[in-house]
What does this fold into?
Amino acid sequence: MNSQLKRGTLELCVLSILARRDCYGYELVNAISESMHITEGTIYPLLKRLKDDGNITSYLVESTEGPPRKYYKITNNGLLKTKELEGQWIQFYRSINKILGITEKGE
Amino acid sequence: MNSQLKRGTLELCVLSILARRDCYGYELVNAISESMHITEGTIYPLLKRLKDDGNITSYLVESTEGPPRKYYKITNNGLLKTKELEGQWIQFYRSINKILGITEKGE
DNA sequence: CATTGTACCTTGTAATGCAAGGTACTTTGT
DNA sequence: ACAAAGTACCTTGCATTACAAGGTACAATG
It folds into this structure.
């Protein structure tokens, strides 16, 4: 899939998933890669950016299946950010569909 | 609007508009900027890339309202490219909406 | 004891939106 | 005659970010 399309939306996807439940990085890679191609080289730097900006926090949990997992939890700021980005996304994809002449009446 | 979101879609927007009618660059800027913020610094390099790749051709038309206009016309390759990108776009935005839990039943 | 799966991370490259700056023509106002 | 505003073209340089590639480390399996 066109990698340029993903810019700006992966951040929203990660935040949106973390808004529903805590996840560790590797889990996010697997969850999102069901819908589109992504790799760890994309997710880990993104998680670092989100943490540096105060949108998520992390905590370690030991695992019996391998190395310890670093779980991420969304913050209040992160929730606000999620709502903001979601609004931008909806407005954006509707604009594109309008230009393309695509109408969404049902599935 | 989030500039990262636009990556990869502006190309499709321009191609899609040119698939319907010939346009000159400044006209495209005005047409697209009705739906989202873009500037000439984005469109002109994009048109050059599309032309270099053989997706569009151009021809000059004199104007009584200012300098001559450079009209762009889509090629057969460009039409194929448009269909390909449109398919990618539809698949993409539906994937995102699925991850976000957004359903499009009607407007 | 080598391989596979899980799980973390970093470096370097390529792509591209856009602010900023530049050229040139036509019309309008003073 | 001259300035300003609108039309129309173009380029340079910066910031952002997806991802391939490469690295570390632990547990289970053959």
Observations:
- Residues 3-4, 6-8, 10, 37-42, 45-46, 49, 63-68 of chain B lie near DNA strand C (CB under 10 Å from a C1').
- The domain at 3-100 of chain B is CATH 1.10.10.10 (Arc Repressor Mutant, subunit A).
- Chain B touches chain A at residues 1-5, 7-9, 12-13, 16-17, 32, 35-36, 85-86, 88-93, 95-107 (CB under 8 Å).
- The two ends of chain B are 22 Å apart (CA to CA).
